[in-house]
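Dear U.,

For the methods section draft, I wanted the exact inputs and outputs in one place so we can describe them consistently. I've listed the two proteins in the order they'll appear in the manuscript figures. Please don't edit the token lines directly; just add comments below if something needs changing.

First protein:
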Amino acid sequence: MKTELQVPASLSEIPLYKYQEFAKIAKDSTGEFVDRKMVSIFCDVPMNVVAKIKKYSLDDVVSHLAGLFSKDNEMIREFTLKSGKASVDFGFIPDLEDITLDEYADLDSYINEWEDMHKAMAVCYRPITTKIKDKYLVSEYNGSDEFKDLMKHTPMDVVLSARLFFWNLANELVKSTRLSLVEEMEQEAIKKSSNSLRTGDGTLAFTLSLKEIFSDLKKSDGLEFPKPSLI
């Protein structure tokens, strides 16, 4: 019997809750089982149906799905979700400089865990209340509980674009902190070595100090937001 699969053509066709289901399984499993579950979850077919698919066809579908997740997504600031018979337009936080302490604390708690990603999306995106051309305002943040269930249906292209945005932002902050720290240390080293510049001792100490700084900052790169990946 021929098996028909509805394979997603883009990440916009894969809702967050399906990826969360897959990520939970992939975290503790390996090999062909993960490939079968990937096809089962993203193509909406039972595992017994997946078992009847020819090996080369399964490999093609897995390769296609993996390819969708390997691409970087441009930032998606607005999208629409259906809630019952109504549709809700959501917008990304217009100005991160105005983010509240509650928003920051919740986002920091949720953004790195896939099982909590729907809550993170409820912080990042909220219903648009006013819109003029490409400018808009969103509703006030009242905690992630208000829209967390609806956000499970957020398309994965939206989710990954937001996550990549924060990963890039974290990268920029690390670079900015690195440059600022090096400049401060440079000024401090110059002050401390001003009396020994004639002998060259201060220059040597300053060079060694910079090497230690760069070494420590390289190690600290692991503290950045993890870059989005398939699992």
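Second protein (the one for the lower panel):
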Amino acid sequence: MNKIDEQFHNLKVKGEKALIPFFTAGFPSASKTVEMVRMAEKSGADLVELGIPFSDPIADGPLIQYTSFKAIEAGMNTDRVFGICGDLQKTVSIPYLLMTYYNPVYRYGLQKFAARCGNMGVSGIIVPDLPYEESSYLKTALRDYDVKLISFMTPFTSEERAEKILKTAEGFIYFITIAGVTGPRGSFAEELTNKIDMTRKITDIPIAAGFGVSGVQQINLIKTHVDGIIIGSFFAQKIIEGKTDRLWDIIRRFKKALK
């Protein structure tokens, strides 16, 4: 069983929701990234999303764009991200996923990228600029290594399109909470929870909400509607400010809120 499926199953049995922090691989450094993932696991994180730094991160807001730029400036690339994954494979037990854009995957080579993911213990891939209609090639390559390609939905996904996506969805649904890029938000539109609830009625696949979640208030607004919460820009801000040591208390507080 893929580790994502196993983790969501175990959480469901315990009546818990998944806390999924996002870190940009290589920011502030490769060794610090490995340390942060280890500490996140110890503090209660259930899965971790690692961003491969990219020069044109169209789905990311200013905070994650900055961390991506600084990581690239320091020499981080796809091969070095896989090196980080190799270190994690030896020291953490929670699933870790890679968030990337399609250009780096295509340039790397789909089969080569999929093989590296499988060999380095990566459980899933998130590619926000890869349309559902064009995802089958990468999904097929990843399937040989039991690596899940995560599908996206939004409050604006049509019913017809949602049905197509859900037929082949695997791992979990990444439900984008807002229209726009990543970054903290104060509230969510009412149609968000309505759309999530409607989706849950037609699929058993777990749903994790991301984009705009930045604190306990937002967690409380949507936690009863989803199976997991993804938080990225909020953590990026703390790391940029040099407040990494505070992350572990925050993760513990967020995990407590999810219970």
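Candidate sentences for the figure legend, describing the second protein: Residues 35 and 88 are 9 Å apart (CA to CA). The first strand starts at residue 18 and ends at 24.

Thanks,
Y.
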